[in-house]
Amino acid sequence: MRDVLVRTLAVGIVVTIVLSAAAYLTTYTRRTRETLSVLRQLVSERVERETAIFSLARDNLNVFRDAFLRLYLDDRVSVSDADFDRLYIRGDDGAVRMRRKFFDGVYDTSGHFRYGVSSFIGNNQPVDDADFRRRLVLSYRLLSQLGPGFQTRFANTHVSFPENAITLFWPDVPWGLQARADLPMNELGVIAATLQDRNPEREPVWTGLYFDDTADEWMITYEVPVDHDGRHLINPSHDVPLTDLMTRLRSGRARAGYAFLMREDGYLVARPTPPSEDQKWVGQLSFDEIGDPAIVRSYEAIRSALNDHPAALENDGTIVVDNAEDDAYLTVGRLEGPDWWFVDVYPKSEIRAAAHRAALERLGESVILLVVLMLVFFVLVRRRAARPLAQLRTAAEYLGEARFAEVAHGDVPLPRDLDNEIGLTARRFYEMSARILDANREMERVVEERTRELLTANEALRELSILDGLTGIHNRRAFDRDLSALVREAVAGTGSFGLIMIDLDQFKLFNDSHGHQEGDEALVRVSTRVAEVIRREDRVYRYGGEELAVLCPDTDLTATTATAERIVRQVSTLEVPFPESVHGVVTVSAGAAAWTGELSTPGEIVKSADTRLYAAKQAGRNRVGG
């Protein structure tokens, strides 16, 4: 019997080891596949989100370029020596700088308050050329107008010149007043990258990471060379401080690993830790100068993978590279615009650790099971208890097939009532099955909870897709969705609602007279005021162009009309100047409608409110139509 016991124990140990190894390999493979799938999705979503800032920079500077060329090429726009001297003064150090008051703030001839602008011309650059002076003065005028609008997403807006000069809208930093007098800006990598001999294709430039000594900040710069008749005139630019990029890299990360940004040509854009003090003076940081071997090896691994499959990023959007040297997976996505790589580094050790934990748990369960089986076998052999042994064998088979519920629920007969080792073993089988079943249920609960969190995150992303990019209120897609839901509730007899259609009066005339930039600002202010004066349960939407809509749940026509009248009054109190209008300020007209049995579709109630809106306009505007 001892020989049988020893042989059985040996077989059990071998089986336990084989099963544990198989469980480890299966768990590791599955965990790797799931982790890489999640990483691809996260990087893809992150790339899509980050691309928006680059598109905005491009759009901003294209607007600036076009506006500058209109001014520069218009002979009616004059710039005199007195205009230049009013702005600039030469200091004792030989540099020409903009006077301090234009940074602190002044009122221009039209009564607008201009602030936050500084300018610097190196002491090696003459300022006698009339065209150079004209470009400097026009750049100031345009920066003082457009710079405040661009500041919502960018630290600054500036204009550099192929001559050694720069003008900046940067309310937080008087850069032009602080720059070193002999600073050779047009010889350094940032501005030099826009010069015609360095950039013959005249493409916009996203720089690598460099240190701005004057601002005492690591920076990334986007700049657009502007030429006319083969002459390089200016470079409108945006700076993105490294602190902002580092904050974005760290945001939302609650797991191992890190992320960094790099250029395809081997220049660092941003990583979670700032460069060292002695790297401030090397210009743009290439990988040779980073002093971080892990990032250099990551770049080489990505470059090797793309050499083997050049179109991988374009075809798949993201790729996963196995960086065997650093024992990590690199998930790479391309940011459109600057054509940067977003790289998420995930250590393989995290996957192995999870597989190890799962394998050890399985091994522990298997060892316990083996010990229990051997004890049971020994007792049964000694006492010749065939039936209890058969019952235990059946239970063991169920456990091996992971049919824990049938054992825990008593569907498998066990001799738990025996007051001996067999009964004890049977009870332990039952308790083990119950614990494993409870553990499985807990795991299912955790998975369900994580699934809900993912659904919540996805819902947040969907919410972002139904917001208007200019005004920040909900867009037409959200309006159609919410109106349809309210109509369904009303048809079912579980609710009522009102609709207000709002239109900015003579908005085309406002845009023609004041420009689309002012028009956009007016639209944003009106949208904000409407959102402030409606009820918390009401919602305002940008219906299209200058037309807004407000949905008012659980209300009737009288209350909806009162809300519309309050909106019309409150908008006029904004006192947005509009001298071309009979009212002298920007006003709105509105039409109100409420759900009735006669209005059975979304289109009908919109038409009803539109009809009243039209009546308001016919009656002289700045009112609610009847």
The beta-strand count equals 22
Uncertain ranges: none
Rough outline? flat
Rg, Cα atoms, Å = 35 Å
Task: State mean pLDDT (0 to 100 scale).
Answer: 84
Tell me which CATH architecture of the domain at 58-242 applies here: 2-Layer Sandwich
Q: What structural class results from the helix and strand content? A: alpha+beta
Q: Calculate the terminal CA-CA distance, rounded to whole Å.
A: 102 Å
Q: CATH H level of the domain at 58-242: which superfamily?
A: PAS domain
CATH class of the domain at 58-242: Alpha Beta
**Major beta sheet summary:** 10 strands, antiparallel
At CATH level 3, the topology of the domain at 58-242 is Beta-Lactamase
How would you describe what is shown here?
It is a single chain. By secondary structure, the chain is of the alpha+beta class. Among the domains are: 58-242, Beta-Lactamase, CATH 3.30.450; 390-459; 476-625, Reverse transcriptase/Diguanylate cyclase domain (Alpha-Beta Plaits). Helices cover 51% and strands 18% of the residues. The protein has 18 helices and 22 strands. The chain has helices at 2-73, 81-87, 101-104, 130-150, 175-178, 189-192, 242-250, 293-308, 312-316, 348-383, 386-400, 404-408, 421-464, 476-491, 507-514, 516-533, 557-572, 602-618; strands spanning 88-90, 96-98, 106-107, 113-114, 117-121, 156-161, 165-169, 205-206, 210-212, 217-223, 226-228, 231-241, 258-263, 268-270, 318-323, 328-335, 340-347, 497-504, 539-544, 547-553, 588-594, 624-625. Strands 1, 2, 5, 6, 7, 8, 9, 10, 11 and 12 form a 10-stranded antiparallel beta sheet that branches. Helix 2 packs across helix 4 (130-150), helix 10 (348-383) packs antiparallel against helix 13 and helix 15 crosses helix 16. The radius of gyration is 35 Å and the shape is flat. The model has no long low-confidence stretch (mean pLDDT 84).
